């Protein structure tokens, strides 16, 4: 299979004939950023730490599921299909996991919850900054690859397992 031009400027994505059908992950990414901003505002306002913790942990569970899909299907398929290296995207996930540990530590009960608000907000801001940087980098790698797939191939991708997809690429 011939390689397309995988350098489509972000501002041209909405004009691509396969947009938005083949870039649904952009919606997930936008939601991740919205939730991250909400959590920062809640921490800065000194809202109930238990509520922040519950929302944060639910959000992180969703993000971990999204990351697992990317690392177990999306990245391997696109790497094989287009020869794109996703090491930097995986490294972004690892950084987010380390920053998650800082947020969990900041969410830990303290003797005075108000005194813990600045460290929690700061930990969430660091996580948010890394998330925004990671998502932009990841989108710049992934979206041109997804847009380059013909609709039939994209449909097959969405409906098939990674082993089946890789076997098909080997034929």
Instruction: Choose one word for the global shape.
Output: elongated
CATH topology: Four Helix Bundle (Hemerythrin (Met), subunit A)
Report the top-level CATH class. Mainly Alpha
Query: How much helix, percentage-wise, in residues?
Result: over 70%
Structural class from helices and strands? mainly alpha
Give the termini separation: 11 Å
Portion in beta strands: under 5%
Uncertain spans:
none
State the total count of DSSP E strands.
Answer: 0
Specify Rg, calculated over alpha carbons.
Answer: 19 Å
Number of domains: 1
Overall pLDDT metric: 92
Helix count? 6
- What is the second-level CATH architecture? Up-down Bundle
Elements, N to C (H/E): HHHHHH
Largest sheet: none
Pfam families: Hemerythrin
InterPro entries: Hemerythrin-like
Organism: Enhygromyxa salina
Domain Hemerythrin-like: 25-146
Highlighted features:
75% helix, 171 residues, Hemerythrin-like domain-containing protein, Hemerythrin-like, Four Helix Bundle (Hemerythrin (Met), subunit A), mainly alpha
Describe this structure in words.
The protein has 171 residues and is mainly α. It has a single domain (20-166), classed as Up-down Bundle (Four Helix Bundle (Hemerythrin (Met), subunit A)), CATH 1.20.120. Helices cover 75% and strands 0% of the residues. It contains 6 helices and no strands. Helix 2 (49-82) runs parallel beside helix 4 (113-148). It is elongated, with a radius of gyration of 19 Å. The relative contact order is 0.17. It comes from Enhygromyxa salina. InterPro entries: Hemerythrin-like.
